[in-house]
Amino acid sequence: MVYAIVRAGGRQEKVEVGSIVVLDRAQAENGKIELAPVLLVDGDKITHDAKALAKVTVTAEVIRDERGPKIVIQKFKNKTGYKKRQGFRADLTRVKITGIK
Question: Who's near 21: CB < 8 A, 6+ residues apart?
């Protein structure tokens, strides 16, 4: 079983070939992106050395760009009449992992 832990935006994600992952919005060239591996597990062999990981490439194909759920931000201060309401939706990219080499 081969899988990798990749750096995607501000998080790390566990990916395998064929898995679908939702990442922060990524700029794709021709619908393909490369992700930086942090750890590689190939059967019983675990690679975490930076020099060895520089040779490893994790490629992904962009399925679609989408937006996350709405997050409501509310601020309130008691006895002053101050209320503020703000919304936020994150820009996301859904990708399918095509290869770990």
Answer: 8, 13, 15, 60, 94, 95, 97
Q: Which helix (H) or strand (E) holds 77?
A: strand 71-77
Q: Give the pLDDT confidence of 2-51 residue by residue, as tens digits.
A: 999 999 888 999 999 999 999 999 999 999 999 999 999 999 999 999 99
Pairing of strands 2-8, 71-77: unpaired
Contact 5, 100 (CB under 8 A): no
pTM of structure: 0.86
